[in-house]
Amino acid sequence: GAGVSQSPRYKVAKRGQDVALRCDPISGHVSLFWYQQALGQGPEFLTYFQNEAQLDKSGLPSDRFFAERPEGSVSTLKIQRTQQEDSAVYLCASSPAGGWTAASYEQYFGPGTRLTVT
Amino acid sequence: AQRVTQPEKLLSVFKGAPVELKCNYSYSGSPELFWYVQYSRQRLQLLLRHISRESIKGFTADLNKGETSFHLKKPFAQEEDSAMYYCALHSGNTPLVFGKGTRLSVIA
Fold first, then answer.
1. Which residue has the higher pLDDT, B1 or A55?
2. SS3 category, B37
3. Helices (DSSP H) in A5-110: which residue ranges?
4. Which end of chain A has fewer CB atoms within 10 angstroms, the N or the C?
5. Cβ neighbours of residue B42 under 8 Å, at least 6 residues apart?
6. Can you tell me the mean pLDDT for B67-89?
7. Which CB contacts under 8 angstroms, 24+ apart, belong to A10-13?
8. Which one, of B106, B100, B73, lies nearest residue B88 by Cα?
9. How far is Cα B60 from Cα B19, in angstroms, rounded to an integer?
10. Residue A1 pLDDT greater than 80, yes or no
11. Are A42 and B44 inside 8 Å of each other by CB?
12. E strands along B1-108, which residues?
């Protein structure tokens, strides 16, 4: 079956623009994670959804970052007034399991969206 | 705070040579450790988890709580093992914490 998909795959934004990044998880997956991966770094956690509930958003770097998953499937990560330091690959991962521990055991990653802010 | 350290950014080995990718962590409790791999132009995927005590593609990793390490090993490297490898830690109700990754290059 289809894996996790993300769109767009590449996004170039001028500083100050708003962007929206989409994640389509594997059908039926309960948990959804967003990560930010800067160049030369490992993925860093941004936020976690269990179904439509955002259970943890402690990794969002500022109030310019906002994520939603209104119907418990597709999720959108929105970045307002983009800054150069927002340039990174944004990864989405989904898991069939709910709850932190079970979901951490089995995460399926999407291909990522590479955001470049000029 | 939890931290995962992968001291080598790049590791080059010859085909057929043994491989050891180092991973050290800092966490006072009982963590769960994972290795993720990203092959060229592919997405990040789970390689193995310590709790399963499994061997995947010839790779093994043993959790050493005394040394707080979870090194990834393979006795004979193959060219198709060339990839980015990330060590990750999970504990309790907290997200996965990843290391910065090690690029393994297997030279023919």
1. A55
2. strand
3. 100-105
4. N
5. none
6. 96
7. A10/A113, A10/A114, A10/A116, A11/A113, A11/A114, A11/A115, A11/A116, A12/A115, A12/A116, A12/A117, A12/A118, A13/A82, A13/A115, A13/A116, A13/A117, A13/A118
8. B100
9. 11
10. no
11. no
12. 3-5, 10-14, 19-21, 24-26, 32-38, 45-49, 60-61, 72-74, 83-90, 97-98, 102-107
Of residues B45, B90, B99, nearest to A104 (C-beta): B90
Categorise residue B41: left if φ over 0, alpha if ψ from -120 to 50, beta otherwise. left
Per-residue pLDDT averaged across B44-59, rounded? 87
Q: In the numeric block, which tokens belong to residue A66?
A: 């906002």
Q: Are A115 and A19 in contact (CB under 8 A)?
A: yes
Q: Please give, rounded to a whole number of angstroms, the shortest distance from the CA of B41 to a CA of chain A.
A: 9
Residue in the block written with tokens 């707080």: B68
pLDDT confidence of residue A49: 95
Read off the amino acid at residue A75: S
Distance, in Å, from the CA atom of B24 to the CA atom of B60, rounded to the nearest integer, reads 15
Do residues A92 and A36 make contact, with C-beta atoms less than 8 angstroms apart? no
pLDDT in tens, A47-74: 999 999 999 999 999 999 999 999 999 9
The predicted structure's pLDDT at residue B10: 97
- Interface mutation vs chain B, best among A35, A105, A113, most B CBs within 10 Å: A105
CA A73 to chain centre: 13
What's the confidence (pLDDT) of residue A2? 80
Strand pairing category for B10-14 and A108-109: unpaired
Indicate yes or no: CB of B90 within 8 angstroms of CB of A100.
yes
